[in-house]
Design a protein that fits this description.
The complex is a heterodimer. Chain A is built from no helices and twelve strands. Chain A has strands at about 5, 10-15, 20, 25, 30-40, 45-50, 55-60, 65-70, 75-80, 85-100, 100-105, 110-115. In chain A, strands 2, 5, 6, 10, 11 and 12 form a six-stranded mixed beta sheet that branches. Chain A has a four-stranded antiparallel beta sheet with strand order 3-9-8-7, with no helix packed on it. Chain A is globular, with a radius of gyration of 14 Å. In chain B, strands 2, 4, 5, 6, 9, 10 and 11 form a seven-stranded mixed beta sheet that branches. In chain B, a hairpin with a 3-residue loop joins strand 4 (about 30-40) and strand 5. The mean pLDDT of chain B is about 95. The chains are: A mainly beta, B mainly beta.
């Protein structure tokens, strides 16, 4: 069965500094990986995904993520953090769950706080 | 705005009751997914429908059921409610049911069971 780990419950970063939110995964076969962001009292917003190809994936709002197969990681990054980036970030992996279906499995989430 | 709508936004009910949550997918999307988000369990996949047919089942309790109608909207029925069913319920939709398809989430329904 597939799984996703986000080792940090909370990440604090100063505004203007680079940020990294970590994610590691476990899946049989090739992973399809996703990042979502959730603002308070809102639904999840899609940021980016890795399907195949270039290991560096660029997404919305200046975010990017680096796929590393040997380390089974898919860390989310941004060169310069904004206060408005403060939110809950979820990493997810989609893998085969049987009978022709693919299930999206989420990590526990990482709360990002950007300090002015 | 993802284009996925969910009603109601909030629902307060008592233990033992039954409720129905409604979801309208983005225009053109054939797949609908239901998720439960709670503090202790995190985000859990419940069930997926594709063009009216059940496609995948996750951690959905027997007291819960769902369906997708010909106009592609979906309903999640929760019965014999317990305190532990209090959670945020999200609906998501995607164009197809493929592995690489992006799921777009609605704003959620917050269910409180008293």
């Amino acid at each position: 069965a597939q799984s996703v780990a986000q080792p940090e419950d909370q990440v604090n970063v100063a505004e203007g500094n680079p940020l990294t939110v970590k994610c590691t995964y476990s899946v049989s076969g090739n992973p399809y990986l996703f990042w979502y962001v959730q603002y308070p009292n809102r639904g999840l917003q899609f940021l980016l995904k890795y399907i195949t190809g270039d290991n560096l994936v660029k997404g919305s709002y200046g975010f990017e993520a680096e796929f590393n197969k040997s380390q089974t990681s898919f860390h989310l990054k941004k060169p310069s953090a904004l206060v408005s980036d403060s939110a809950l970030y979820f990493c997810a992996v989609r893998a085969f769950s049987g009978a022709g279906s693919y299930q999206l499995t989420f990590g526990k989430g990482t709360k990002l706080s950007v300090i002015p | 705005d993802s284009g996925v709508t969910q009603t109601p936004k909030h629902l307060i009910t008592a233990t033992g009751q039954r409720v129905t949550l409604r979801c309208s997918p983005r225009s053109g999307d054939l797949s609908v997914y239901w998720y439960q988000q709670s503090l202790d369990q995190g985000l859990q996949f419940l069930i997926q429908y594709y063009n009216g047919e059940e496609r995948a089942k996750g951690n959905i309790l027997e007291r819960f059921s769902a369906q997708q109608f010909p106009d592609l909207h979906s309903e999640l029925n929760l019965s014999s409610l317990e305190l532990g069913d209090s959670a945020l319920y999200f609906c998501a939709s995607s164009v197809g049911g493929g592995r690489g398809d992006t799921q777009y989430f609605g704003p959620g329904t917050r269910l409180t069971v008293l």
